[in-house]
Amino acid sequence: EAGVAQSPRYKIIEKRQSVAFWCNPISGHATLYWYQQILGQGPKLLIQFQNNGVVDDSQLPKDRFSAERLKGVDSTLKIQPAKLEDSAVYLCASSFPWTKDTEAFFGQGTRLTVV
Amino acid sequence: SQQGEEDPQALSIQEGENATMNCSYKTSINNLQWYRQNSGRGLVHLILIRSNEREKHSGRLRVTLDTSKKSSSLLITASRAADTASYFCATAPSAGGTSYGKLTFGQGTILTVHP
What domains lie within chain B, and their CATH numbers? Predict the structure, then answer.
């Protein structure tokens, strides 16, 4: 089966610019996640969608980050304006919902460098 | 915020040796999962152990879980150069519902296996 697709793979922007990342989850996966992974650390959950509704966005810096999942399939994550500390790998993951023992399937990630 | 800590932060061994990584966490969990991340790539699910299980095997992997100590260990036997990667533990909360999929990752252990 096709995996989680993300684009672009790499992005370099200047601080205060905006950037958007795209994710297409595995077909049939209702749950979609965006994680931020800073170099040398483990992934940190930014936002979790169930279909096209937000389940948890408690760790999303809402003053600059936004995410949407229209029609419950593809999702975009946007940063506006970007700061130097936003440099990280942004990982999208998807999973089946509502099961106790669910594993997450991750995309390759987008490596963002803010200069 | 990160759920817990992993140790060692880095591990260097020779091919054929066993590698053991440890993970500690802080809150009640439904399950604990281990993921592998090769350089520049997304995370790949390795194994899941439920909170009512104490040990689980999958191929060359052996995972133990001690909920009283809030700790887990991952053993890779007869390691290969291809096992070189970062390994992360991730916990799923026991809160239930949509929280099942909300994974919290540790900082990771960097494993290097020398041929």
Answer: 5-114 (2.60.40.10)
